[in-house]
Amino acid sequence: MSTIPALHPDTTGLVQYFEGLKLAAYRCPAGVWTIGYGHTKGVRDGETITKAVAERLLASDLAAAADDVAKLVTVPLTDAQRGALASFVFNLGAANFKGSTLRRLLNKGDIEGAAGQFERWVYATIKGKKEKLPGLVTRRAAEEALFRGGDWRAAIPAGAAPAPVAQKVEAAPVPVPLIRSAPALAGTATLTLGGIAGLIDALGPAGELGAQAIGLAQQVQGTAAQVQAVAEQVATAQGQVAGAVAAVQAIGAGPSLSSLLLGGGLLLTLGLQVWERLRASR
């Protein structure tokens, strides 16, 4: 494990508060076997530990989470930011953090944008249904408060008791992104693969959806007929891009550009649907 700066002193207390101490193995709301202060690695049904062991496991797990943060974040962090991210990674895992919009924005230097991403990671799949958990909502608010340099305890409603948190956390669905600059598409006359790729670029970052949407675009062979086939599969999504088409027409763009927006928007919507199915099947 690499050498990393010390965590903010509030980090351990935050994790202990939200995880709670359980000396016998139990299943979290998402069905993951857990023990101690949110420890999950190698936990078996019927296992018991002492408080001293729970504290050692917590120290080790937090150190591993902090190490993941150090490896995955490329910008300088304050102790408070590092501590909040360590709690975040402790709960949802390094893989989720690595692929998150939070990390992408943070590594671009967008601290405010990154802080606003904590609140998305409040879902867990309970008995096959994706649910928003109050315990995760409060924990993310506390982590965001610490990330911003404040007191994480202030994010806890007065008199509220700790609510269960899941050890398998998911983000909120990613909305289809709004068009950043319609004029940037001017001059594109036909609905080709290159045109769709240009549309995706103009739409800007699409968070976790971006890679899937671009991958789908690369599978399209560049004809209007093929995009129409996609449109038929996601006909119910037409309303989601109608506003964008109307906006382009309002600025005097021709029908080819409107068709480009419609096809590209439908393609992104299909990408979102595929991505949601893949994530739900994990």
UniProtKB/TrEMBL annotation:
Pfam family membership, one: Phage_lysozyme
Family stated for the protein in its record: Belongs to the glycosyl hydrolase 24 family.
Alphabetical list of InterPro entries matching this protein: Bacteriophage_GH24, Endolysin_autolysin, Endolysin_T4_type, Glyco_hydro_24, Lysozyme-like_dom_sf, Lysozyme_dom_sf
High-level lineage: Bacteria, Pseudomonadati, Pseudomonadota, Alphaproteobacteria, Rhodospirillales
GO terms classed as biological process: cell wall macromolecule catabolic process; defense response to bacterium; killing of cells of another organism; peptidoglycan catabolic process
PANTHER family registered for this protein in UniProt: LYSOZYME RRRD-RELATED, PTHR38107
Domain of life (superkingdom): Bacteria
Enzyme Commission number: 3.2.1.17
Coiled coil: none
Gene3D superfamilies, alphabetized: 1.10.530.40
Alphabetical keyword list: Antimicrobial, Bacteriolytic enzyme, Glycosidase, Host cytoplasm, Hydrolase, Plasmid
Enzyme class: hydrolase
Catalysis performed (reactions): Hydrolysis of (1->4)-beta-linkages between N-acetylmuramic acid and N-acetyl-D-glucosamine residues in a peptidoglycan and between N-acetyl-D-glucosamine residues in chitodextrins
CDD domains per record: lyz_endolysin_autolysin
GO MF entry, a single one: lysozyme activity
Protein name: Lysozyme
